[in-house]
Fold this sequence. Notes:
11 helices; TIM Barrel; alpha/beta
Amino acid sequence: MIKRALVVILSALLLVGCGSAETPTVTTAPENPTQTEAPAEVDDNDKKDDSAAETPTVNEDSSEEKPAEEVHDVAVNTISEETKEKAKSFPEVNGKLPKWRGVNVVDKAEFAWSWVAASPSYPEDVEDTSNTVYKEAEAIEISEAGYNFVRICLDSRYFFTDESKVTLENVGSKFYGSIDTANLTQYENLDQMIEWCINRDIHVCLDCHSTYGGLMIGGDEETSRKKLFTPGSKAQKMFIEHWKRLAVRYADVDTKALSFNLYNEPPAFATSKEGVYVKLLNKAIDEIQKVTDDRLIFVDMMQYCTQGMKKIKELHANNLVACFHFYGPDVADTEVKDIDLQACMSDISSRLPSYNSYAKKNKVRWMLQEYGCNCNIKESKREKYCKAIIKYCKSKGVPYALWAFNDNAFNVATWANGTDKFIPPGAKYVETSQGHRINKKMAEITSK
C-alpha cells in the first residue's frame, strides 16, 4: 500500500501528469475569478471534432497570478486531522460490508440547479443556486434520522467550472468549464460535508451522478451520454481527471469512512458497449488505486443499474462492490398517483434475489444503492413497499440506501416549510432540530 504521507507530498505531480496538459486554474469565489475571460461554451450537442483543444483558463496578467504553492490546493483537502483520525475508527470495509442503512443527498446532483425543494415557490425560485451549497444542518438531520451511510450525488461539472459560472443559465447540456479549471469553492464545500458526516459516524460515498458528456439530465438520457462512451473523447478525459483529483485530494481520508461510486446508472445503449464501459472505469480505478490501493469502489451495473455486468471480473478494483438500484412498477414515475402494490411485491420477490444470485456467482459483494417511491403515492403503500425491500436486504446482509433524503419528489426531509406539495398523502412530517420538516416514520423504517 502506498504511504499516505508520500501521497500528500507527491500529489501535485500526480495531478499535473494526467487529464490536462497544464496545471489547473484555481477558482475560489465568483467576485474574484482567476480568469480574465470566460472559457468557451461547450455544448453536448455540438458536432465539432471532440479532439479540439479546450479554451485555456489562465490569467495572462502575471502580476495577478496566485503564488505557485496555491495552484495545487486542489490536491489538499481542508478536513481536520481530528476528523481524519476518527475516520480510521470506522467499521472495516475490506470483508463483509457494514450494516449500512443509508440515504442519498442530491444538492449537487445536477450542475447549477438543485433538486432540493428549498422554498414554497419551488421550482419557480431555482435561480437561487445557494440551494446547491451543502450546509451542516443537512448532516445533522441525516444523523438525527438514524442513517449511517450517505451517498453524495455529484455533477462533476461543478468542479471544472469557474464559480462565477455556476448559475442557472448554464443548466442542462451547456457547459462553460474546462478540464484546466479547478473550482476550490466547490471542493471545499464538499470537504465540509464529508467532515460533518464523518464527525457524526456517517460513512460517505461520493457518486459521480452526472458529468460532461455523460449527463443524467439536460436532454435525452441516451443521446446526452454518448460522448462519455466514445473512447478518447474529451468527456472521457474529464471523467478520469475528476476521479484522479478526488483520489489525490482525499488520499489521507480512510476508506472505512469514504468510498467512491464511479458512475451512476449507465444507459441502455451502454449494454452493447460494456467493453468500453469497463475500459473507462478501469482508467479511473487505476488513477484512484495509484494513491489509495484499498479505496472501496462501487460500480453501477448495466441497464440503469438493474442488470449485472458480464465483464465484472475484468475490473481492476481491489476493493469492489457491485451496485444495483430497485424501483418497482411505476414507483419512480412522478406523474403517477397510485401503484399496484401487489405487482411491486412480486417484482421485489423476483428481482432482488436475482441480484443476490448474480453477486454470489461472481463472488462480489453488492449494495442496493437506490430504492424509493415518489411522493404522490399514499404513505401506507410507500411504507409497505419500503419495508418489503428492507426485509429482503436484511435477510441477506445487504446494505441499502434510500432515494432520497432531500429530493423534492422522493423526500424524507423537505425544506419547503410553506407548502405540502411534496408531502405524500397520509404522511406526517414533524419539525427537525434545524427547523425543516421530516417524515419521521419513514425515516425510522428506512434507517433501522
